């Protein structure tokens, strides 16, 4: 296929037509085009011709590589193929790599250490392991790692492998240990401590960010262990580590003076331990205590003593009610608050929320009031004029309501009041959404006025199809998504959000 470049009129009035093909593009332009392709697609276009094959081998296209095909990565059929890739394509340009269990061998790790001196980010996926390779002969490992993510197995003990890499990972700044939370069955089975956290912390004194996600054996002693050796610690996440009760929280804050972010969603926090913390002396700015069982007394005690909270996630808490919000306003310090998530906190009334948002809504960048049947479009319409700085908004519940949500007026209010909006989710059941023939106009206004909008999530149904078609006609195909495969969260506003991403 050719593309006309134009016509040139010569002195003798003869017309000469010049055409340009993709073959005539400069190499740097072609390389830039290839950079938008996945590695699977790059491998396919490499078969077109010799020039494209040479371009596909350019190491600049292979700076970040996933070899986990089940998570959109490249499938490598054998160790020999991977060793060849490391030599011919990865080289000094490689910065990030994800390896599945079958490709984690001492030979591969040796090659990465020798051929990829600038490798700084590595993910090792042991989650499906029933048996590890033999690492007794491993003598080398990448030494410039700043980020490491290890997906743990349910039953395989990692200490033999970890013992071999302890001397190489003292420069780590970000550590992810990912458990098997989603695989846990209801039946109680024996829990194995498959990795020795107490030894690991001795080898990683420079950690700034620690994420222990869904690990069934992690408890307060492991938090205390990290706090005893990681004086640079800024962010600690132990979401869905159900054995964590908070008994080491006071010690954690006494030792880790730089700790600004603590995420404890789905843990077993006990109110008495949380109330023992000297909150006045901490530097905490971001806190997630959602889906715990903290009492109203504890929440009031904590929120009135934290000096300058910036981010609060306190959803799914029976203890969070109007008295907590009132105490936070009158005796606490919400002046720095930019993100609030109260998902499924049914004991907060719309009147209590209205009073709080009337006072502090103008400073919020993120607000999630989802999962509460009594919070309808009426409250949102009344507070939208205040939320003029909002970047993230989550509203609605998937429960079938006895009232209807007039979504046209709601979209119009969002468009006219939230020009900085980047992410929006409406979780209401499609049966509760009421819209008219003029819906296209309301959607047009939202699309035109909220130019920063990159994600709009709706429950699958007729209204979703209308909105999706509208955005696709404007060549914004990736904006509209369904709640089936996408959820919006205030976590995008965390200071360490990019460091906390895994998988």
Automatic annotation (TrEMBL):
SUPFAM superfamilies registered for this protein in UniProt: F-box domain, RNI-like
Residues spanning the membrane: none
InterPro entries: F-box-like_dom_sf, F-box_dom, LRR_dom_sf
Protein species of origin: Dryococelus australis
PROSITE patterns hit by this protein: FBOX
Limits of the F-box domain: 19-65
Annotated PANTHER family: F-BOX INVOLVED IN POLYQ PATHOGENESIS, ISOFORM A, F-BOX ONLY PROTEIN 33
SMART domains: FBOX (SM00256)
Pfam families linked to this entry: F-box-like (PF12937)
Name this polypeptide is given: F-box domain-containing protein
